[in-house]
Amino acid sequence: MLIRNFKRSDTEQIATLFHETIREINRDQYSLEQVKAWAPDDIHFKDWESFCLSKHTLVADDEGVIAGFAQIEDNGYIDCFYCHKNYQQMGVGSRLFEALVKIAKELKLEELMVESSISARPFFEHNGFSVVTPQKVYRRGQVLENFLMKKSI
C-alpha cells in the first residue's frame, strides 16, 4: 500500500469513500438521520476536488483502490481522516497517521488537533490524543456529538 499525495483523479473515490464509511461504519454510534445529515446523498465531486486541494491531503492507495485518506492543515488541524469500510482494522489509519505526523514535523508544528467522531475516538486516543472537550455539531438539522482532541508532537 502506497501513501501518497492526493491527485484530482482521486476525487470520486474519496467522496464515495467518505459517504459510504459514514453511512456504514458510523451507524453504530449515530442514528440514520444523523449519518444522512453528515454524509448527504447529494455528493458534489467538484466541491470535493477543491476541498482536497486546499489542504495537505494524503491517500492510501492499494493498487488503484483508495483504502483511506487523511488531511492536515498548516496549523495542525486534522480535517478528514477516513478508512474505507472494507479496510477497517488493517493498519491503513496507522500508516496515514504516521504520514500526517511527518508533514506536521516538516511544518515545525508542536501540536495536532482533531474533532473526532465517537467512532474514531479510540483510534486517536491510541495514538496519544486527549479529549479537550465534548462538542455538539449541527449538520442539516441534526445534532452530532464529537470530541475536540489534541496531541503534542
Explained architecture:
- This protein is of the alpha+beta class and 153 residues long.
- The chain has a single domain (2-110), classed as Gcn5-related N-acetyltransferase (GNAT) (Aminopeptidase, 3-Layer(aba) Sandwich), CATH 3.40.630.
- The chain has helices spanning 11-25, 32-38, 45-53, 92-106, 121-126; strands at 2-5, 56-62, 65-72, 77-83, 111-117, 130-139, 142-152.
- The protein has a 7-stranded mixed sheet with strand order 1-2-3-4-5-7-6, sandwiched between helices.
- Helix 1 packs across helix 3 (45-53).
- The longest helix is centred in the first third of the chain and has 15 residues, at 11-25.
- The protein is globular.
- The two termini are 25 Å apart.
- The mean pLDDT is 94.
